[in-house]
Amino acid sequence: MSARRATTTQDLLQQMSSAVIPVEDAERAASRREQVVSRLEALHDEIDERRQRAQVRTRRVAMLAVAALPILAVGGYTLARHSGAAPAAHVAEQAAPAELSVRAGSVLLARGSASERPVRSAERLAAGDRVRTGADGRAGVHMHSGTDVEMSPVTELTMGDEVAGWRSERVDLARGRLDVAVPELGSGRSFEVATPDASVEAQGSHFTVIVKPGADGKLETRVVVRDGKALLESHGSQTQLGAGARWSSGAAQQAKPAAPAAANPAGRSAAKAPPKPAAGTSPTTPAVKTTGGTKLPDVSSASSLADQNRLFQAAMDARRRGDDTRALALLNQLLGRYPGSPLEQDARVERFRALKRLGRNDAATRAARRYLANHPEGFARDEARQMALSPGN
Amino acid sequence: MADSASQKKSSSWLRVLPGGAAGSKAHRASDEELIEAFERGNRAVAEQLYDRLIGVVDGTLYRVLGCRGHDHDDLVQSAFEQIMITLARKRFARACSLSAWASTVTAHVALNSLRSRRRERNVVDRARDPELATQRAHSSEDVERQAGAREELTRLRAHLAELGSAKATTLLLHDVLGHELAEISVLTGVSVAAAQSRLVRGRKELHRRMSQDAADAGRKGKA
Fold first, then answer.
1. Is 0.95 surpassed by the pTM of this model?
2. E-assigned strand segments in chain B
3. B183/chain A closest Cα distance in angstroms
4. How far apart are CA B104 and CA B106, in angstroms?
5. Where is mean pLDDT largest: A96-110, B57-71, B108-122, B132-146?
6. Nearest CB to B46: which of A40, A165, A388?
7. How many angstroms separate the CA atoms of A294 and A289, rounded?
8. What distance in Å separates the CA atoms of residue A237 and residue A61, rounded to the nearest whole number?
9. Dist CA B171 CA B97 (whole Å)
């Protein structure tokens, strides 16, 4: 009975699909055409008018901004001298996608090219911000979407850029443990935690992600889904994890007999553990400043534009060396810190290419869509469209 | 003689071409050109947009709703307004064709209409449909079968309206409108895996609802 019903349901859908559309009365169709076209023309005029008003507003704002630039520069410089923070930090705060709350102990925040500073109670976070908890530190991050992220001690994360056109949020976990509760975000939205060797995407679920060195000293990702479902992507393959499921990148690698590092010498260098802190160094002050397991260039004294060029150049150098993971981390830094950079388009193209080379096809697809949304006429639009349409290839 | 010469001349000038009047298709603007014209503020684009997409919009509405009801023209207008607004807001990323985008937007409009109709009257309970009951009472076996099939389709549509929006849209786009999963993932802004999961879950839920419905009807019949 059940099989017959399934056939019937499919048959009915098939009937809907193959229904012959009857020819409409020409007079009625013509009258509707006239009515709809006239409404569309009116709507078009409204949209056009709104667009023109927005352009005028933008021009005015731009003129005001140009006029106010010297004042802001002087003000920012003075403020930076007094507070020790870079002027870019205040600009970044305007687009805060999340709020950081200190639960206990020491919590450090690094913004832009500024050095780490302790957070006392709460702070708004922007894309590219790096948060690190000390050995006694605990913190919570409340995302704009309503997602709650709890950071355990000795955890380091970087805020990813929100993909505006596709409304998804991302954080990069370099090490430590995150407990994540993602509410139902609605169609087309998701929350992603990216680690050096995996990414977990979910909505309407509760899960934990841990990044720590495994038995062989290499960084390993562990995922435990407590409630709902999560989509896990690692080394080019995707797995749907249900409630109660546990996954470890170390076990997954051991389960693959023919997956040696040499199979993709360029792609997976991120799996290498970052250099360990020197003996006697406190866990809250690692010897290497890391984001996504990579060392950042020293850019504290560089100007904004020089910093952007340096980050992009470093990413390209990493790509030429075949270190796509490092290239990706640097591109994420560039896009996070300078979303309006003149290099933004190039960085986005290089980002989806790097993700593709790393075998993170779904992430590459999303990055390609984001690129298309931002640059429908961009130089790499054909390549991005191809990637957006055939993510499995 | 003169007539014959004239005919000969005209036959050498006029030929029947495959496609007939559709020869103007050669000058048909591409999707890109149409969108660019729209973005430049060309008012004539409304007419071109209508002519380009009316087939898709009308067909999608007819397939999903099963007829051209009294509100068909309003739904067509509503679908076109939505298409234009999404173009203005640049939500169409140009990774798919304009007609695929139009069918997705129209499917949403049609589903919303199904839902509002569902709220207005309970279409599943056949005992409440006096017209259908009268028809069944006076019909021959063949007409009875046709009426039964129509009724099944009505129930399917009612259950589609009750499915979650994401699942119902994915199911319609794939099983009714014939889009590929990769295309649906682009149209709905999710990964291919998520689109597939929605499709499978949508089919399962629809099947479960239809089975439940049939079981309820059986129990009512026995009683």
1. no
2. none
3. 6
4. 5
5. B57-71
6. A40
7. 8
8. 47
9. 19
**Residues A154-188 as b or e (16 or more Cβ within 10 Å = b):** bbbbbbbbbbebbbbbbbbbbbbbbbbbbeebebe
What whole-number distance in Å separates Cα of residue A30 and Cα of residue A32?
A: 5
| Cα distances (angstroms) measured from residue A381 to each of A151, A367, A368 | 38, 12, 9
Beta bridge partners of A122: A101
Cβ A364 vs Cβ B184: under 8 Å: no
The amino acid present at A278, given as its one-letter code, is A
CA distance B96 to B100: 7
| List of chain B residues whose C-beta atoms are within 8 Å of the C-beta of residue A190 | 190
Partners of A15 on chain B (C-beta within 8 Å) are 149, 153
CA-CA distances (angstroms) from residue A95 to A121, A182, A188? Answer: 20, 21, 21
Residue B162 sits at φ, ψ, to 5 deg, of -90, -15
Asked which of A132-141, A217-226, B142-151, B173-182 is least confident by mean pLDDT, the reply is B142-151
ipTM computed for the complex: 0.72
Interface residue of A1, A5, A7, A16 to substitute, partner B, most B CBs within 10 Å: A16
Regions of chain A where pLDDT drops below 50: 1, 84-96, 163-166, 256-302, 393
Which pair of tokens denotes residue B80? 């076109």
Q: What is the pLDDT of residues B119-130, one digit of tens each?
A: 665 544 444 444
Radius of gyration of chain B measured on its C-alpha atoms? 23
Token pair of A86 as six digits: 């870079």
Q: Pick from B111, B136, B113, B140: which is nearest to B126 by CA?
A: B136
Kindly list the residues from chain B whose CB atom is less than 8 angstroms away from the CB atom of residue A32. Answer: 73, 76
Burial class (CB in 10 A: 0-12, 13-18, 19+), B175: buried
Beta strands in chain A (DSSP E): 98-104, 107-110, 117-118, 122-125, 130-133, 138-143, 148-151, 156-159, 168-182, 190-195, 198-202, 205-213, 219-227, 230-234, 237-241, 246-248, 290-291, 294-295
Q: What are φ and ψ of residue A163, in 5° steps?
A: -85, 100
SS3 B119: helix
Q: Chain-centre distance of CA A241, in angstroms?
A: 21
d(CA A287, CA A280): 11
User: What confidence tier does B25 reach under pLDDT thresholds 50, 70, 90?
Assistant: very low
Q: Span B37-65, mean pLDDT? A: 88
CB atoms within 10 A of CB A301: 8
Q: Minimal CA–CA distance to A336: which of A113, A99, A124, A100?
A: A113
DSSP annotation of B1:
-
Record the tokens describing residue A89, joined without a space: 């930090």
pLDDT higher than 50, residue B102? yes
Which of A5, A190, A362 is opposite residue B211, by nearest beta carbon?
A5
